[in-house]
């Protein structure tokens, strides 16, 4: 078992080594892998921190993995080792046990056999001895009597008997009989020579001795035979015959003859003897022969047996089994061994050897071991079983057995080599162990590899997961920080914007202050510009953060895209002129006029793009192109169809030159619009095409110094464009500059049909001479005109213009004769009678004022030069913002009223063409080049449209558009009014349709009519001298003229330029006015026109003759073709009588118009609300529900200042009561209108103002809050059909509150603290419809 | 001379008040509303504000002294105070009220008490300033001068 314990520990050592190696290997690989990211760190400096963090994490994870691996491996090793050990141990124990028991049996058996033999030998010896004794006794008794006479006979007898016995037992060595008298008879057998001897002795003094022998001297000492003579006779071993002579031999020489001394006690004696002649010890037994009667011993019989046979047996056994055996006497003398070694010592006579002195070293050492181990203290039964005794260098089993014979105890020892019994077992055990160990090592190795593989997979996954977690962490942090950034920016810019707005507002006030010196004014203007720039930057940042944080919500409203873009181009063209850059708008005709979207954002997109382009373009042009996505748009065929239609209907619609192209769109249909902004600036490097759209990114950072900017513009643009479902890219461009292309996905208006007005000018066969400075705009315009069917020339400078003019007019002379040829060259258009109507005046010359030499006074000559063509062609002048007043005045003086501001784009061109065509018609009728009001009108129309655009786009353009100071200021004010008035309307879609149209129209009409009115006023003033009747109307209209007093300048101009003409041909002018009026009413919806016509219808019969009635009839029926009226107007011209009447009619019409105005009284009120000393809220009665006394007081005062009557109540309950009372009063009024006064008197203070026009409702009030109060009021109203506008006043500025307010039935929403302007405008917008 | 001096002082005081944001544009609007038809308007409104604010501040301190604070009630009071101060243009009182309300929403009693102290401070600041202003105004009027208009 000790070995079994040793081996596993020995086995553990290599395992441990293996582990150590594995560990080092793992460490190595880990080091390698952990080194790699560290190397990376060196490359990526900014990420260092992150990586460090990562590596530490990695390392710790490595360690944990490593520990896990180690633990698993150790456990595996222990498991396998245990299994091995247990298997081996149990196998071994069981095997050993069974084998040991077997071996013990074997050994015992082996030893038993020689002992049995010895026992047999002893027994047989005893038997023979006993037999000899019995025979001897018998013989002696037989010869008792004659004993004394003849002893020889006795001896002879004895000899025969003994011989018979001796020969029967061949194993016997000798039989001796020694008589009392000393006579000895013996037979001896020499086994080596196989001879048998008879030995006897002759008594010399027989006579002496005989007596003694007979007479009891039998017990004579043995030494007596010394006197005897010993003889030996050789006998035949079979027969016993004498074969040789007797020979005398020394006594006792051959054999040990048992003497009487040995049997003195009468018992058998045993002893081991040695003889001279044998190598092996002899066993001799002696028994006394007693006298049969006397019982005295008469002789002793001795039998000697050699123990050699025992040795032989042992040898045989050992030969078969291997090992050693020996028998010893109790004293330790070796009696028999299994070896051939001599048993006797020859040194001093033959003696027995001690086992410890034995020659054979195995036996000797075995005996020595036994003696060492036990000494003399053997166990009682003398049995010893020892295993694994090391003798020499082999292991042996030693077993000893004790055989307790009387007088001769024997000890048998067997020494069997361990190898013999357990050799195979040990061997097999060893190989098994080896196999087990190797197998377990194999298992361990495989297991370790498996663990490595598995854990490496796991560790990879863990590593990845750790990395992923850290990445996610980093991402979250980054997102959070960017979110913080956005929020911070949003908050900051909001905080900054508020004071900025205040600063700008205050500066505005300061600028309009009259008491500023020029220097101060300049400074303040400068400050204002800077503030605007700063505000713009802040707005940009806010926009960006808004878009980035996803808070930007795009508005969805219908707007006129074309108009917005035109305004934009107008605005930028002013900026560009200083830069020597053209700004061109090139929108394709198929673009829808009205789209749905966030107009402010779209304008912002283009503002950013264009201002960006302007920044980098020092000369050249900037083109804004726009077209429609061709795939879902096919207007061309329809267009041509419409052309045909319009041509067919030409007679009926000679005055209305617009054909309506109807495009059918699905509801909520989206349309993709494409735009391009092209410039000729420094361009962007292709590698930066993507990055310019990043925030704070500029194509060339050095430009910041020169051009400023933060690089936010394009980023905002891209964000906005993406938000609108489009894309923006920089596109490759031929030549210098940048080309940005973007698409926008915009909604179509909800009313499915879109009227896109396309003018049909083709039939007038106009020829246009474009004398424009800018090359690009000229070519684009001329191309467009050609598409529309005009013939165009182009001139870029004064010389070119004069050249073309000369050529053209020479040709023109020829044309009148050879017209068709030229026509075919331009475009074949069926023109019918329109040609002669134009009367040769079919050439339009558009002249850029910058073509004139303005630096000197040459322009005057140039104008005079152009003047010679006036009769032959129409002139349209392109003014720029810096055109001096002198030129304008001069132009007007010369009768050029068709003036427009730069830049020229299609809408303006269309307007010019309209004007020309219309003028042409009048010219046809009147046949002279008199002043025509329509021309003026057009002129002003274009002017006014300009200014509207200007201001509608951005209110801070006023600094850019430094128009003729005061004039422009007034214009700005005017348009602001316009806007404030229009805004609330556009926010109320519930407004009834017709009203909406009319209210929207009216202000527009007013703009258009404004000059017209002035003219008419003038006319009336003039006419009033002749017709006193009209004085009254004139007075009314004078009132209007006062209201529009700020147009004084214009008016004066008008007067100066037209007074002369007017004085002479009043009637005509009046006719013209009338026509103009009719024409102006064209855009009005039918209802108004009908009203107007009916009015005429009602009035006319009393004033005019039948012819006139007829004429009016015609006028009424042919509203769409007022051309007829003109034709008739021509007739009218013939009689002065009629003209007077017509003049009166004109005045009546003006009155009508006046009434028409009064219908829209509120608009007028709203319009003039900012005019000081007016009570915009005059006549309104307002119920104010407000619990806070301060606010109540403040609001009351505010409203009263504006002219309203205010009833204040403290809570919602009172408000509801007040409304109830009012409704009751209404009911009463309705029921008994006759007793109205009585009822009114009976009512309480509250009910004095029986009708509230509006309720201002605080949202948070005691008893009944604003929401509940509103709900109650709306419930009360439910049956009556009334609707009192309720305006919420709340301190909550959240949009959710607004939604809540609107939800409960409130009409509008004001935040505290109340802004009086906002409040007034809100109230007006709500109360207007009650009128 | 005296009038001019008073007027200058008035202008200075107004400027400081506006600079410190004790009052804002709302007050300017109120000043514009005061004319011949309502000569005592400002005084009227301001004293209304004083009454209201003092009442509310009392209520607030009472409400916050309670063991269990009724935050809804406190919130309503603060809201009223906010409305009042906003209408008079007491900017800083209003700002503190806004913060106060957010505290109320969180049911943060300590914060509320802290804010109440702030509101008190701001209120007394406004009050003293307004009283000075009104006194000055009265003096100017008494000495026959006109109140300089603020832009």
From TrEMBL, chain A:
Region (Disordered): 976-998
SMART domains xrefs: HATPase_c, HisKA, REC
Keywords linked to the UniProt accession: Cytokinin signaling pathway, Kinase, Membrane, Phosphoprotein, Transferase, Transmembrane, Transmembrane helix, Two-component regulatory system
InterPro entries reported for this sequence: CheY-like_superfamily, HATPase_C_sf, HATPase_dom, His_kinase_dom, HisK_dim/P_dom, HisK_dim/P_sf, Sensor_HK_Regulatory, Sig_transdc_His_kin-like_C
Name of the protein described by the UniProt record: histidine kinase
Superkingdom of origin organism: Eukaryota
Gene3D superfamilies per the UniProt record, alphabetical: 1.10.287.130, 3.40.50.2300, Histidine kinase-like ATPase, C-terminal domain
Limits of the Response regulatory domain: 1181-1327
Keyword Methyltransferase: no
GO molecular function, one term: phosphorelay sensor kinase activity
Residue intervals of the Histidine kinase domain: 491-748
Stated role: Cytokinin receptor related to bacterial two-component regulators. Functions as a histidine kinase and transmits the stress signal to a downstream MAPK cascade.
UniProt enzyme class: transferase
EC number: 2.7.13.3
Spans through the membrane: 66-90, 396-416, 428-454
Biased composition (Polar residues): 986-998
Annotated catalysed reactions: ATP + protein L-histidine = ADP + protein N-phospho-L-histidine
Classification via CDD domains: HATPase_EvgS-ArcB-TorS-like (cd16922), HisKA (cd00082), REC_hyHK_CKI1_RcsC-like (cd17546)
Modified residues (4-aspartylphosphate): 1258
Pfam families cross-referenced by the UniProt entry: HATPase_c, HisKA, Response_reg
GO-annotated biological processes: cytokinin-activated signaling pathway
Automatic annotation (TrEMBL), chain B:
Entry-linked SUPFAM superfamilies: Histidine-containing phosphotransfer domain, HPT domain
A GO CC term assigned to this protein in UniProt: cytosol
PROSITE patterns listed in its UniProt record: HPT
Keywords from the named record: Cytokinin signaling pathway, Cytoplasm, Nucleus, Phosphoprotein, Two-component regulatory system
Annotated GO biological process: cytokinin-activated signaling pathway; phosphorelay signal transduction system; positive regulation of cytokinin-activated signaling pathway
InterPro entries: AHP1-5/YPD1, HPT_dom_sf, Sig_transdc_His_kin_Hpt_dom
CDD domains: HPT
Pfam families: Hpt
Domain (HPt) ranges: 38-140
Coiled coil: none
Modification type Phosphohistidine: residues: 79
Domain of life: Eukaryota
Localisation: Cytoplasm, Cytosol; Nucleus
Alphabetical list of Gene3D superfamilies matching this protein: HPT domain (1.20.120.160)
Written domain comment of the UniProt record: Histidine-containing phosphotransfer domain (HPt) contains an active histidine that mediates the phosphotransfer.
Main function: Functions as a two-component phosphorelay mediators between cytokinin sensor histidine kinases and response regulators (B-type ARRs). Plays an important role in propagating cytokinin signal transduction through the multistep His-to-Asp phosphorelay. Functions as a positive regulator of the cytokinin signaling pathway. May play a regulatory role in salt and drought tolerance during plant development.
Name listed for the protein in its UniProt record: Histidine-containing phosphotransfer protein
Organism this protein belongs to: Elaeis guineensis var. tenera
Gene that this polypeptide is encoded by: LOC105032163
């Amino acid at each position: 078992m000790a070995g079994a314990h040793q081996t596993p520990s020995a086995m553990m050592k290599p395992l441990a080594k293996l582990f150590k190696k594995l560990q080092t290997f793992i460490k190595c690989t880990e080091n390698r892998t952990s080194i790699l990211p560290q190397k990376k760190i060196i490359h990526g400096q900014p990420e260092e921190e992150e990586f460090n963090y990562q590596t530490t994490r990695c390392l710790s994870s490595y360690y944990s993995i490593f520990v896990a691996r180690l633990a698993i491996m150790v456990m595996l090793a222990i498991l396998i080792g245990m299994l091995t050990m247990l298997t081996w141990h149990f196998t071994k124990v069981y095997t050993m046990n069974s084998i040991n028991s077997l071996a013990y049996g074997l050994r015992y058996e082996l030893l038993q056999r020689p002992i049995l033999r010895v026992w047999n030998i002893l027994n047989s010896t005893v038997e023979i001895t006993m037999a000899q004794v019995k025979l001897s006794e018998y013989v002696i008794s037989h010869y008792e009597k004659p004993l004394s006479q003849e002893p020889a006979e006795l001896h002879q007898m004895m000899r025969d008997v003994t011989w018979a016995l001796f020969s029967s037992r061949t194993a016997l060595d000798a039989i001796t009989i020694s008589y009392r008298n000393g006579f000895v008879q013996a037979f001896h057998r020499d086994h080596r020579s196989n001879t048998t001897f008879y030995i006897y002795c002759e008594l010399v003094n027989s006579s002496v001795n005989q007596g003694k022998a007979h007479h009891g001297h039998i017990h004579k000492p043995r030494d007596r035979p010394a006197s005897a003579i010993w003889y030996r006779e050789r006998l035949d071993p079979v027969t016993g015959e004498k074969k040789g002579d007797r020979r005398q031999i020394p006594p006792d020489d051959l054999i040990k003859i048992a003497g009487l001394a040995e049997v003195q006690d009468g018992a058998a004696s045993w002893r081991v003897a040695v003889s001279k002649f044998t190598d092996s010890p002899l066993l001799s037994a002696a028994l006394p022969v007693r006298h049969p009667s006397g019982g005295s011993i008469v002789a002793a019989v001795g039998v000697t047996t050699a123990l050699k046979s025992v040795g032989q047996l042992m040898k045989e056994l050992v030969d078969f089994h291997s090992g050693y055996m020996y028998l010893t006497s109790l004293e330790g003398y070796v009696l028999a061994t299994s070896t051939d070694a001599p048993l006797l010592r020859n040194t001093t006579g033959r003696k027995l050897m001690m086992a410890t002195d034995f020659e054979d070293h195995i036996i000797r050492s075995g005996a020595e071991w036994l003696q060492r181990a036990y000494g003399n203290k053997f166990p009682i039964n003398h049995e010893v079983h020892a295993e694994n005794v090391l003798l020499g260098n082999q292991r042996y089993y030693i077993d000893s057995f004790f055989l307790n014979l009387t007088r001769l105890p024997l000890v048998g020892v067997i020494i069997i080599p361990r190898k013999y019994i357990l050799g195979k077992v040990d061997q097999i055990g060893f190989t098994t162990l080896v196999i087990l160990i190797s197998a377990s090592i194999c298992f361990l190795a495989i297991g370790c590899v498996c663990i490595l593989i598995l854990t490496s997979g796991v560790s990879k996954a863990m590593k990845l997961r750790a990395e992923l977690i850290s990445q996610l962490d980093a991402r979250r942090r980054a997102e959070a920080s960017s979110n913080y950034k956005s929020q911070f920016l949003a908050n900051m810019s909001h905080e900054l914007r508020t004071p900025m707005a205040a600063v700008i507002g205050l500066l505005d006030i300061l600028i309009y202050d009259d008491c500023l010196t020029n220097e101060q004014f300049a400074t303040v203007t400068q400050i204002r510009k800077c503030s605007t720039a700063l505000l713009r930057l802040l707005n940009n940042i806010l926009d960006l953060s808004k878009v980035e944080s996803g808070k930007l919500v795009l508005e969805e409203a219908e707007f006129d895209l074309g108009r917005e873009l035109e305004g934009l181009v107008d605005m930028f063209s002013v900026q560009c002129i200083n830069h020597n850059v053209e700004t061109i708008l090139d929108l394709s005709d198929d673009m829808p006029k009205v789209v749905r979207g966030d107009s402010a954002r779209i304008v912002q997109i283009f503002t950013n793009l264009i201002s960006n382009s302007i920044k980098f373009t020092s000369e050249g042009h900037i083109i804004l192109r726009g077209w429609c996505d061709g795939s879902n748009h096919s207007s061309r065929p329809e267009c041509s169809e419409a052309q045909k239609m319009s041509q067919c209907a030409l007679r009926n619609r000679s005055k209305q030159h617009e054909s309506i192209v109807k495009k059918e769109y699905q509801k909520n249909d989206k349309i993709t619009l494409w735009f391009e902004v092209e410039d000729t600036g420094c361009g962007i490097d292709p590698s930066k095409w993507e990055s310019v759209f990043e925030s704070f990114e500029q194509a060339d950072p050095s430009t910041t110094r020169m051009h400023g900017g933060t690089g936010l513009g394009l980023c905002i643009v891209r964000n906005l464009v993406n938000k609108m479902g489009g894309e923006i890219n920089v596109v490759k461009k031929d030549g210098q500059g940048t080309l940005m292309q973007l698409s926008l996905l915009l909604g179509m208006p909800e009313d499915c049909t879109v009227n896109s007005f396309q003018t049909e000018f083709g039939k007038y066969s106009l020829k246009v001479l474009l004398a424009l400075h800018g090359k690009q705009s000229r070519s684009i315009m001329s191309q467009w005109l050609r598409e529309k069917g005009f013939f165009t020339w182009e001139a870029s400078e004064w010389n070119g213009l004069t050249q073309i003019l000369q050529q053209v007019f020479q040709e023109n002379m020829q044309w009148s004769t050879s017209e068709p040829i030229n026509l075919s060259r331009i475009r074949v258009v069926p023109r019918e009678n329109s040609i002669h109507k134009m009367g040769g005046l079919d050439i339009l010359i558009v002249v850029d004022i910058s073509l004139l030499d303005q630096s000197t006074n040459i322009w005057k000559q140039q104008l005079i030069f152009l003047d010679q063509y006036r009769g032959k062609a129409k002139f349209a002048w392109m003014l720029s913002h810096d055109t001096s007043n002198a030129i304008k005045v001069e132009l007007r003086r010369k009768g050029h009223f068709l003036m427009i501001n730069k830049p020229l784009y299609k809408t303006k061109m269309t307007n010019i063409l309209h004007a020309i065509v219309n003028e042409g018609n009048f010219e046809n009728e009147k046949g002279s080049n008199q002043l025509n009001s329509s021309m003026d009108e057009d002129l002003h129309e274009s002017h006014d449209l300009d200014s509207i655009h200007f201001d509608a786009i951005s209110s801070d353009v006023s600094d850019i558009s430094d128009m003729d100071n005061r004039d422009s200021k007034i214009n700005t004010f005017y348009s602001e009014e316009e806007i404030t008035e229009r805004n609330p309307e556009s926010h109320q879609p519930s407004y009834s349709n017709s009203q909406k149209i009319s209210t929207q129209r009216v202000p527009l009409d007013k703009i258009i009519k404004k000059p017209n009115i002035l003219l008419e006023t003038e006319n009336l003033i003039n006419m009033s001298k002749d017709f006193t009747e009209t004085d009254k109307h004139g007075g009314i209209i004078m009132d209007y003229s006062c209201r529009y007093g700020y147009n004084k300048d214009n008016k004066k101009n008008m007067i100066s330029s037209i007074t002369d003409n007017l004085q002479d041909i009043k009637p005509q002018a009046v006719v013209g006015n009338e026509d103009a009026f009719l024409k102006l009413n064209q855009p009005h919806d039918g209802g108004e026109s009908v009203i107007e016509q009916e009015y005429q219808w009602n009035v006319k019969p009393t004033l005019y003759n039948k012819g006139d009635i007829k004429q009016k009839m015609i006028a009424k029926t042919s509203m769409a073709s007022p051309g007829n009226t003109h034709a008739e107007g021509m007739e009218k011209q013939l009689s002065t009588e009629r003209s007077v009447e017509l003049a009166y009619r004109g005045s009546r019409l003006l009155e009508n118009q006046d009434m028409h105005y009064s219908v829209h009284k509120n608009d007028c009120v709203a319009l003039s609300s900012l005019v000081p000393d007016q009570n915009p809220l005059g006549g309104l009665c307002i119920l104010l529900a407000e619990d806070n006394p301060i606010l109540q007081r403040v609001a009351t005062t505010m409203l009263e200042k504006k002219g309203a009557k205010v009833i204040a109540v403290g809570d919602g309950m009172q408000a509801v009561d007040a409304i109830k009372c009012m409704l009751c009063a209404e009911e009463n009024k309705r029921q008994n209108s006759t007793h109205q006064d009585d009822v009114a008197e009976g009512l309480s203070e509250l009910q004095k103002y029986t009708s509230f026009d509006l309720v201002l409702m605080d949202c948070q009030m005691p008893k009944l809050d604003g929401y509940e109060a509103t709900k109650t009021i709306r419930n009360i109203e439910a049956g009556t059909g009334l609707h009192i506008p309720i305006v919420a006043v709340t301190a909550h500025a959240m949009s959710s509150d607004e939604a809540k307010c609107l939800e409960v039935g409130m009409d509008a929403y004001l935040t505290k603290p109340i802004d009086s302007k906002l409040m007034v405008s809100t109230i007006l917008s709500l109360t207007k419809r009650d009128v | 001379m005296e009038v001019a001096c008073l007027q200058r002082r008035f202008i200075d005081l107004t400027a400081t008040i506006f600079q410190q944001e004790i009052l804002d544009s709302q007050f300017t609007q109120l000043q514009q509303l005061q004319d011949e038809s309502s000569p005592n308007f400002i005084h009227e409104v301001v004293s209304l504000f004083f009454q209201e604010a003092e009442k509310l501040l009392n209520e607030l301190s009472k409400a916050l002294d309670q063991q269990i604070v009724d935050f809804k009630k406190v919130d309503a009071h603060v809201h009223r105070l906010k409305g009042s101060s906003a209408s008079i243009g007491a900017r800083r009182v209003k700002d503190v009220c806004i913060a106060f309300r957010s505290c109320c929403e969180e049911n943060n009693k300590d914060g509320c008490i802290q804010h109440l102290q702030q509101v008190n401070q701001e209120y007394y600041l406004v009050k003293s300033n307004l009283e000075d202003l009104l006194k000055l105004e009265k003096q100017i009027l008494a000495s026959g001068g006109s109140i300089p208009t603020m832009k």
